[in-house]
Amino acid sequence: MYYLGVDIGGMSIKCGIVDENGVIIGEKRTIVTPTTGGDDCVKGIADLCRDTVKANGLTMDDVTAIGLGVPGTVDGEVATFVSNLGWEDYPVCQKLKELVAKPVYAGNDANCAALAEWKFGAGKGYDNVVMVTLGTGVGTGFIVEGKLLLGNKGSGSEGGHMIIKAGGKKCNCGLCGCWERYAATTALLEAVEAEIANCPQGAIAQIAKDNGGFDGKTLFYALDKGDKRAQEILQNYLEDISLGLINISNIFRPQIMVIGGGISKQERVVKPLEHLINDCAYGNGRNPYIIVRPATFGNDAGIIGASLLALI
Amino acid sequence: MYYLGVDIGGMSIKCGIVDENGVIIGEKRTIVTPTTGGDDCVKGIADLCRDTVKANGLTMDDVTAIGLGVPGTVDGEVATFVSNLGWEDYPVCQKLKELVAKPVYAGNDANCAALAEWKFGAGKGYDNVVMVTLGTGVGTGFIVEGKLLLGNKGSGSEGGHMIIKAGGKKCNCGLCGCWERYAATTALLEAVEAEIANCPQGAIAQIAKDNGGFDGKTLFYALDKGDKRAQEILQNYLEDISLGLINISNIFRPQIMVIGGGISKQERVVKPLEHLINDCAYGNGRNPYIIVRPATFGNDAGIIGASLLALI
Fold first, then answer.
1. Of A190, B12, B38, B231, which sees the most CB atoms within 10 A?
2. What average pLDDT does the segment B120-144 reach?
3. Distance CA B131, CA B293 (A)
């Protein structure tokens, strides 16, 4: 039997057929038009599920259940708040069930990624796993004794909004000094942009100029050339990431932290973080070592994790 | 049947006889002489258990099991690190079991307090409860879906060492800017002391002078007189406490936060904290309300919580 994992993004919806080992055996995607409302979106998901199954030589009879990864807050079967899609208290599971006549489960997308990494990815074999995704924001997922931490009505797990520098940079959430404002890759890009403006003759500015602009790789090209400023910028960024990871370590003391997001592929990010955390977390080295590893799945984590909502 | 809850402090050990409703029906205490080592301490605990039972007209046959609240890290049956008692990887449960021939359980004392408040105190009836004790440090205990969060080898739950002001005040743990340095009652006393030094003619200094010195009540006497500076000092302190509580809210989104420590008896502390947290925690007011209440048990939480290690 197979499970369908549906990763609902702000721009597109991906549906994957996943077997009980977490392997995606086929997938399809469709474009999201959020303005059309929840019911049209769910109709689109139902069509996508059928199309995906058909394109892979299966029928819906081969599907045990469907899991939905939702980019917002999910309380049981209801998407309580999804700003990108304009959903409020939308009974997404019930609506899809009516169209596909299969059991439907839903969960927050960051939590889905944590499930995927825990069951089949970098966190496999551990009971206490923290997943931190560094992207345009910072997403967190916490597996505590083999169970996903949801919080009251599914509204917990917002670790990116820990205050680590009170009175610091303004965050979209309304507060100042949230971890996300320092640890998101956006923050690294801001630092690179500032460096280019401040040191137009520097190596980083030169690389940006040669490439017609800067992006997430600019700093790493400069590091490859041994540029001192690039090293300082990376070190500051890693220390800022570590602040939140230390806080999470002290509260959860997980066995392993899985770092997601494109930047986690950089050995120069993940290894130093492991050292920083184990040097600084509470207990002066007496407490158990915390492994830090890059995520296994990248973009597939959403589909695999969504299918796990149905599988476990 | 009864349970014995043993609260092992740095100065004294208290033993209470607790019934299955969490009611202490009798207690005794003894003085700790930590230098004598673990075995002598455990012998003292065994004697204390027998004395307590006898003094209340019972025998050890009336006792089902014994729970120990330990002021350090506990991994299952072993106290892995208790700095005040000089214990390292000390098999405290096994040692006591040999002397009393009863099942013995052990847990960290802050976690015991959380258990007590959750099962029989301010957090009764809720599944997601956070206990924060404001004392000379800041202790935390987290009940997640009706289960105590322990972390790998019992070494989690050190929320007092969340960094909230990176680069801020130096903490005993070796880092700077830990929540404990701002939210412990010690921090409030530091602020009062600084105020007395800076404004020797002010109301706070006058009250301290009249009382032959300052203590935890000095600020509240000044507040009773409507002193503006006292209001500012309290407001700063509450905002600092709220920083950590907001972080905990965003991660756990508990139904209720229970505030322990002597200062939690002050309505002027607990009520404003409830407002600050619900105004500032993630979700712009859409997420479920977080109740904040003072702890029910005070000093008895240790005994009741320790007995719960045996009871649940």
1. B38
2. 97
3. 10
A74-83's contacts with Cβ under 8 Å and 24+ in sequence apart are A74/A106, A74/A107, A74/A108, A74/A154, A75/A153, A75/A154, A75/A155, A76/A154, A77/A104, A77/A105, A77/A106, A78/A106, A79/A106, A80/A153, A80/A154, A80/A155, A80/B286, A81/B283, A81/B286
DSSP-derived pairing of the beta strands B2-8 and B63-70: parallel
SS (H, E, C) B76-131: CCEEEEEHHHCEEEECHHHHHHHHHCCCEEEEEHHHHHHHHHHHHCCCCCCCCEEE
How far apart CA A222 and CA A177 sit, in angstroms, is 28
Quick check: B126 and B256 in contact, CB under 8 A? yes
Q: What is the ipTM, given to two decimal places?
A: 0.95
Q: Which band of pLDDT confidence, cut at 50, 70 and 90, is reported for residue A303?
A: very high
How far is CA B243 from each of CA B174, B180, B223, rounded to the nearest angstrom?
A: 20, 11, 23
If one counts every other C-beta atom within 10 angstroms of the C-beta of residue B94, the result is: 12
Chain A closest CA to B50's CA: distance in Å? 35
Q: Which of A149, A165, A287 sits opposite B144 (nearest CB)?
A: A149
Residue A85 · residue A41 · CB < 8 Å: yes
The SS3 assignment for B260 reads strand
What is the residue type of A186? Answer: T
Contact B252 A288 (CB under 8 A): no
Chain A interface disruption, residue of B87, B131, B161, B178, most A CBs within 10 A: B161
Interchain contact, A151 vs B282, CB within 8 Å: no
pLDDT in tens, B83-115: 888 899 999 999 999 999 999 999 999 999 999
Q: What is the DSSP string of B149-171?
A: ---GGG----GGG-BSBTT-SB-
Amino acid at A215: D
- Is residue A304 scored above 70 in pLDDT? yes
Q: Residue B125: what are its φ and ψ, rounded to 5°?
A: 95, -5
Q: Is B133 helix (H, G, I), strand (E, B) or coil?
A: strand
Closest by CA position to B27, among listed B39, B42, B17: B17
The CA angle A163-A177-B138, to the nearest 5 degrees, is: 30
* Cβ atoms B309, B104 nearer than 8 A: no
Which pLDDT score is estimated for B285?
A: 86
User: In this complex, which of B161, B174, B251 lies closest to A158 when CB atoms are compared?
Assistant: B251
Nearest to B295, CA basis, from B70, B72, B141, B67 = B141
**% of chain A with per-residue pLDDT over 70:** 99
Residue at token pair 């992207």: A135
- Closest CB from B155, B157, B280 relative to A175: B280
Tokens for B210?
């009249």
For A125, A157, A250, the CA distances from B152, given in Å and listed in that order, are: 14, 19, 11
Whether the Cβ atoms of residue A281 and residue B171 lie closer than 8 Å to each other: no
Q: Do A174 and B280 touch (CB under 8 A)?
A: yes
B244 close to B138: Cβ distance less than 8 angstroms: yes
Mean pLDDT across B279-285: 92
Percent of the residues in chain B that have a pLDDT greater than 90, as a whole number? 91
Whether the pTM exceeds 0.90: the reply is: yes
Q: Are A253 and B128 within 8 A, CB to CB?
A: no
Residue B228 Cα, gap to closest chain A Cα (Å): 23
